[in-house]
Design brief:
Helix content: over 70%
Radius of gyration: 21 Å
Distance between the termini: 65 Å
Length: about 280
C-alpha cells in the first residue's frame, strides 16, 4: 500500500501545486473573473483523467487473457516511461515551476476565456493522465481484485489535497526541489517493480519468452500471502519467483535510473564571470 500511497501523494501534490499557483496568481493580479474558466479547465482535466482510468479498467475486462496481459504489460511499460520522464522533468524545473506557469497564464489572460480553460486543462490534465495510467498499472502489479492498492492511492491523494491547501493558505512552506528529489527516488523503486510486472505480463501473453526460466524461487521462505510477503509486494511490487528477464530488467532500470537521477547537476553557465581588473 505504501508504494501506491507514494504515487497518490507525489502525483496529487504536483497537480495540487499547479492548481494553487494558477488560482493564487489570478487572485493576486485582481482577475477574479478568470477564476471560473480556470476552475472549468481544472474540472475538465479531472473528468478526463477519471474517464481514462475507467476506460483502462473496464475496457480491458472484455479482452481475452492473452490480450489483457499484452495490454497490461504494454501500458505498464508506457506508464513507467512517462513517470520516469516526469521525475526528471520535475527535478529540473521544480525551482522554476511558479514562474513558468505565471508566464503561461499571463499569455492566456491576454488571449481570453478559451485560452484560460485550455491552460488550466493542459497544466492539470497532463498530471491527471499520467497519474491514472501509473495508478492503474501499479494496482495491477499490486494484486488484482484487492482494495489495498487503491486505498493507498486515495489516501495519498487526500494527503496531497491537504498539503496543497496548506501551501495555498501560506501555513506550509515546502522546499520543492528537496521534496521531489526524495519522493522521486522512492518512486523510481516503485516504477522498477511496475516495469518488472509489465515484463511478466508480456511473458504471459507469449509476446516475450523465458516465462519458465526463474531467477530464483523463495516462495517457501517469503510466502506471497504472509504479512511480510504482502508488505514487500505492496511497497516494492516484490515477487518471490521472478523470471531471469524480469530480474534483469528490474536491476538495469533501477540502477541506471537512480544513478542519473541522483547525479549532481552541473552548475549553470548563463552568467559570464566578472572581468578581473587590469
Amino acid at each position: 500500500m505504501f508504494g501506491n500511497y507514494l504515487i497518490g501523494l507525489r502525483e496529487g501534490l504536483e497537480a495540487g501545486l499547479v492548481v494553487c499557483i494558477l488560482v493564487a496568481y489570478v487572485v493576486k493580479t485582481g482577475r477574479r473573473d478568470a477564476l471560473v474558466p480556470v476552475w472549468l479547465g481544472i474540472g475538465i482535466a479531472c473528468a478526463v483523467s477519471l474517464a481514462f482510468g475507467a476506460a483502462l479498467e473496464f475496457g480491458s475486462q472484455e479482452l481475452t487473457f492473452e490480450a489483457q496481459e499484452l495490454l497490461g504489460g504494454s501500458l505498464s511499460i508506457l506508464s513507467v516511461a512517462l513517470v520516469t520522464w516526469m521525475i526528471f522533468w520535475m527535478r529540473r524545473t521544480a525551482r522554476h515551476l511558479r514562474s513558468d506557469l505565471h508566464g503561461r497564464l499571463d499569455e492566456a489572460l491576454r488571449m481570453g476565456t478559451g485560452a484560460l480553460v485550455a491552460t488550466a486543462l493542459l497544466a492539470v490534465g497532463r498530471e491527471g493522465l499520467e497519474t491514472a495510467l501509473f495508478v492503474w498499472a501499479s494496482v495491477r502489479a499490486g494484486g488484482e481484485g484487492r482494495s489495498g492498492p487503491l486505498v493507498g492511492v486515495l489516501l495519498g491523494i487526500a494527503t496531497a489535497i491537504v498539503l496543497a491547501w496548506l501551501f495555498y493558505r501560506g501555513a506550509l512552506r515546502i522546499n520543492l526541489a528537496k521534496f521531489f528529489t526524495w519522493t522521486g527516488s522512492m518512486l523510481v523503486v516503485v516504477a522498477a517493480g511496475v516495469l518488472a510486472y509489465g515484463v511478466h505480463d508480456l511473458q504471459e501473453a507469449r509476446f516475450l519468452g523465458g516465462l519458465g526460466t526463474k531467477a530464483f524461487d523463495i516462495s517457501a521462505t517469503v510466502p506471497p500471502d504472509s504479512w511480510y510477503g504482502t508488505l514487500l509486494k505492496g511497497v516494492f511490487n516484490f515477487q518471490p519467483d521472478p523470471t531471469v528477464l524480469q530480474l534483469t530488467v528490474w536491476a538495469l532500470y533501477l540502477v541506471t535510473t537512480m544513478i542519473f537521477f541522483l547525479a549532481p547537476r552541473r552548475a549553470g553557465t548563463g552568467r559570464p564571470a566578472p572581468a578581473k581588473p587590469a
